[in-house]
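Box 3.1 A note on notation
Throughout this textbook, protein chains are presented in two layers. The first layer is the amino acid sequence; the second is a token string describing backbone geometry. Keep the layers aligned when reading.
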Amino acid sequence: MEWLKKNKTLLFSGVSTTIIGVVLTAFLMNPKAAYLDSKNTTYLMSAGFIAMGMAQYPKAIAYLEQALAIDLNIHGEDYPMVAILRRILGNAWLSLDKYSKAIPYLEQTLASDLKTYGEYHPKVAISRNILGGAWHAFGNYAKAIAYYEQALASDLKTYGEDHPEVAVYHNKLGREWKSLGKYSKAIAYYEQALASDLKSYGEDHPYVAIGRDNLGCAWQSLGKYSKAIAYHEQALASDLKTYGEDHPTVAIRRNNLGLAWELLGKYLKAVGYLEQTLASDLNTFGEDHPTVAVSRNNLGIAWQSLGKYPKAIAYHEQALASDLKTYGEDHPSVAVSRNNLGIAWLSLGKYPKAIAYLEQALASGLKTFDEDHPTVATGRNNLGDAWQSLGKYAKAIAYFEQALASNLNTFGEDHPEVAISRNNLGSAWKALGKYSKAIAYHEQALASDLMTFGEDHPEVAMSRSNLGSAWKALGKYPKAIAYLEQALASDLKTFGEDHPRTILRAENLALAKAEAYKVVQR
């Protein structure tokens, strides 16, 4: 009933507490009795709010939609309870991850709030904030930014700089720009939020720790792993002071540290943090909780990086079983677990099994999101990889082209996801012997990654390595060697000598030099 406690003022304004008591008793004894009078909006609203508090969202929606229809019929658009019902219905659909159903209700709520309060009122800012979150979940980051910027402008007028509410929007705008691949812009917003929260709260406050964690994630995306780890470690130390061991927030900090160490190729260190995270989450939530499933998926990915595929699969299977219990079919978290299983089976060379999981994940993503959602594009890229591994290059190219079109639609040019799709297409065309076509895609990917990350980022090194391989296949060894040397130098700077990526770069360069030497000797 946590939701009910938090929202009781909003929900029950104007609703008799006697009626709430009657409906709650009826609801708990026999849910059908909550329809005591299906034409009485007070009963319907009370039943809907109680169902909402019990996380019975489909039931809540049924009650509240009836109440809304009656209120609209009797009182019309401008009746105060109409706006409240729409807000709650929007939140109910959001809780079910049905964003296309939630957004119209939330937009109607905003229109109503604007009529009642005008621009620059805290309630209008809240409505815009909720809409920003809905568009973020829907994968439309540009639209989310528009709503958050309006909410920020409003709160700046209301509160001025260095107010906690203003810092919240700086953090949210940082998240959106990060999602759009504009990492420097994201960092600027996160730094503003952190500076403001330090002024408001001082060191060792949960909001300050969140700000540091956000900055860690942004620097991580820019390939600055040591800088990222420093922020994550500060956030962890602060939250340990605040909460002690076995708190969900401390577990999140450890999880993020684990992921950062994994990117640096320190897989055992990563596994150590991720195992602590899982143990803590099991302690807090017990089995079959969504957070526990996420921790298992992350451990699965870490063991996969270590080449321990059966161990990875075991974690992903536990996560999938748990998510199916929690959500049923066609939920984004279920799709993530299937996607992870598909990739793990792909690494083991079990291509039909991998494809089956990846196809289920994509089908689920298409049911939840629209065509151009990043999750759908990722699903298509993964299926392209699987078909390419099977030597079905035409099929792989079709998936990669769909993913590229979708990512261009969502992000525009010069986004990391767009570059990944182009690199994938380059690799597929190279496998088909179309080297000039492959080089064109890899060159576009490299130009884009240089714009996003600058020199010495792992993605830039990857694009250069791909270009080196393509020029080698064309027999242009000096050009190939130049790219492969740049890729190796970059990964040495980022990861050091003993990282698997660095070792692979060195092997590719040695191979290219050996082939070039043979050609000269002929």
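Residues 1-20 have pLDDT under 50 and may be disordered. The chain has 25 helices and no strands.
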